[in-house]
Amino acid sequence: MLRLMLVCLCLIFVAPVVHAQSLQSLLQDNADAVANPSRSTVDVVVRALAEAPVEGSPRFLEDWRDKAIWVRLSDGIFFSAAEDGDGLVLTNLDTGVQTTVADDDGFDQIRPNAGVRRVINAALVQFQLSDADVTRRIAALDAISRDPAADQLVPLRQSIPGEPDTSILARKVQLERQLTARFGDSMQERVAAINFLSGDLSVEVRGVISQILTTRQFVGISIPEGTNVAQIMEIGDDLNEVEAYQLLVDADLVPATVTPDDIVATLTAQIEDGQVAGVDVSTLGTDAARIAAYDMLVTRGDAAPFIAPEDRASALDAHTFYLAYTEVNTDITAAAEDAEAAIAMQLNVGKTLDLTLDALSLASIYFLAAIGLAITFGVMGVINMAHGEFIMMGAYTGYVVQQIVPDYTLSIIIALPMAFAVTFAAGVAMERLVIRHLYHRPLETLLATFGIAIVLQQLAKNIFGTQARPLTSPDWLAGAWVVNDVVQISTIRIAIFALALLFLCLILYILKRTRLGLEVRAVTQNPGMAASMGINPDRINMLTFGLGSGIAGIAGVAIGLYAKVTSEMGADYIVQSFMTVVVGGVGNVWGTLAGASLIGFTQKGIEFFNPSNTLAAQTYMILFVILFIQFRPKGIVALKARAAGD
Predict the structure, then answer these.
(1) Which pLDDT tens digit goes with each residue over 310-335?
(2) Of 552, 566, 511, 515, which Cα lies nearest the Cα of 427?
(3) Which of 243, 254, 255, 183 is nearest to 217 (CA)?
């Protein structure tokens, strides 16, 4: 009884001591493995650190990996140390207290090799998964994602129940499913994990499925029992005869074939006194003669055997060429194939949606750039070749405002109406000084506006220089709306799309609900009748031209937020603007919207099939427009405009 009481007392007092074992004492228990680490001993230290609840283990592993652990030779105590001249700044591994020694004599730096550091890195992941520091947990998950391994599965699972952060928890669960799909203990849990991943379009998941479905090429007289065959390869469809025979040679199933060039080279090398194998060289003018001479060399052992075409064909027919999965379990590969098919279908849907979003974004840009031109062209019949330069003026106005107002959000709010005012005034001045004198003279109008465009470009170069100027978007417009790894669109393009919708509604309101809109529609349909009803066509033309120019200026601010702001930027959009107006229908807002949509979607569709050559896409786009107007010369939405006046 007394002995039992003594044992209990020992357990009571000893247990806390064992539980509170320090990091230094644990390292001393494995001193040789720590001081002289190798691939065979590092696992002992890592296992001891993992099994004992010792504070500071992750930090020690990091320092050990980074060669920052030193040992004092006199007593074998380990320190974390940083070199300070000829001395060291020592940090106690248990208390964190720092001391400085003037000389590093008596200390030895522990330098684990690259293989040991890789093992330490893997061990660090296990500790960091449950670290209190969020950044360390994220770093551990990043490390697992970069280099997944079977030994990471158990610690990852153990860290999931206690994870407080919902986003990190979701990522842990996702990584656990990925590791289980590859390294799970049973077929059932691997199949369940693969089924769980089948709806995920991330690159990591696609990589996991691809690794499960990794194949190797084999050839044999028959397929061994138990082989998980992915594909039987057919000669002519999957392999040509030369490739197939080379596979047989590589597998040591047949001797290497000899080509006609090889025969000629061998015969040439064997020529002695004008003869080869006792045959005069002059008689070797045919393939049959050369083969016969070569066979004589083979008989003498001076050349490799010649494989006749019929023998080669027979060898190919006698063997089976196939691809086999490296994963031997057919249920697992079947589940992976189903997951791959499901992911491929969702990828196609995602790519279509992404292409649609890109096309909508491009259409909104073309609409903003072209709506002002559509109004002036429809009301006045003026071909304004300087329309792109009004876009450029708006972008430069935004740049100047940002130089005065450093707050990007406030500067954009100010720049939009300012760009409208500047380009509206410029448009009115251009109409009053030039355009109104050239009505009903389209060729002169075209030449005059083209000249004005050149003048405006040169003025911009003289004022702002030839280098691109930044028009910076606010932080809240940075980044992108990411649905998944396939579908994403930049926030600035979403903002431009919203701005295009806003202007569509605003222009429709002006044209349908205001006095100015009524007069514009009247002048558009019949300027003579409108004049007889008391409407001043000259005033309407002036305001319309100013309005169209002002809208172009606002489009310039929007475009400048994501494109380069240069003196030539207007030229990049003038062609698309005219195509939009012509295809949509002159002078019609809905026609401009339809034309912008058609141009945007068609151009993105062409780029999808030829993504490496955007210039070719634009060329095909112009050809498409030319063909389109042959069948519908008045555009998508034909407008009864200026018939009576003309």
Answers:
(1) 878 888 888 889 999 998 899 999 99
(2) 552
(3) 243
In three-state secondary structure terms, 516 is helix
The pTM score is 0.66
Residue 588 has pLDDT above 90, yes or no: no
- The SS3 assignment for 64 reads helix
C-alpha of 10 from chain center: 64
- C-alpha 522/C-alpha 515 separation (Å) is 11
Rounded-to-integer distance, Cα 592 and Cα 364, Å: 11
pLDDT at 419 > cutoff 90: yes
Looking at this protein, which amino acid is placed at residue 607?
A: E
Q: What angle do CA 174, 177, 183 make, to 5 degrees?
A: 140
Helix (H, G, I), strand (E, B) or coil at 89: strand
Cα distance between residue 107 and residue 93, in whole Å: 15
Tokens of 41: 């001993």
**Residue-level pLDDT at 65:** 85
Give the separation between CA 102 and CA 79, rounded to whole angstroms: 15
| Torsion of the alpha carbons at 2, 7, 12 and 14, rounded to the nearest 10 | 140
Tracing tokens 């009571």 back to the chain, one arrives at 12
How many other CB atoms are found less than 10 A from the CB of residue 73? 12
Cα–Cα distance between 80 and 83 in angstroms, integer?
Answer: 10
